[in-house]
Amino acid sequence: MRFNIRLFILFILILNAISLIALNSSLHQGGEFSGKEQFYKQIVWIFVFWIVIVIFYFINYIVLALFACVAIFPFIHVLATSFSSSRAIMSGEVSILPV
Questions:
Q1: Which of 49, 40, 48 is nearest to 20 (CA)?
Q2: DSSP annotation string for the chain
Q3: CA 36 vs CA 18, 33, 73, 88: distances in Å
Q4: Segment 23-43, tens digit of pLDDT
């Protein structure tokens, strides 16, 4: 099953909206946390959350791309040595391209 990022973002947005609605309704009850200050703090934290998610998303892809490049290099080297002459292999002339 493939991970659907659009569906994931939609669910997170729905959860953000539900949390803001619940917080707004609880602020009207009075008590220690009454007032709009808590509501505005929650909105700021939601924006911080989305910024962190986007940054993590791109860093994750960069790290995975680097790991893929490092992981595929030995296979390319083996392929290059299989097409190279034994003299070139013994002298160390083969790296990525066959000689």
A1: 40
A2: ----HHHHHHHHHHHHHHHHHHHHHHHTT-STT-SHHHHHHHHHHHHHHHHHHHHHHHHHHHHHHHHHHHHHHHHHHHHHHHHS-HHHHHHT--SSS--
A3: 17, 9, 56, 74
A4: 888 877 766 666 778 888 889
With tokens 């490049």, the residue in question is 69
CA torsion sign for 40, 42, 45, 51 is: negative
Q: Please indicate, yes or no, whether the overall pTM of this predicted structure exceeds 0.70.
A: no
Mean pLDDT across the chain: 87
Instruction: State residue 31 phi and psi, 5-degree precision.
Output: 100, -160
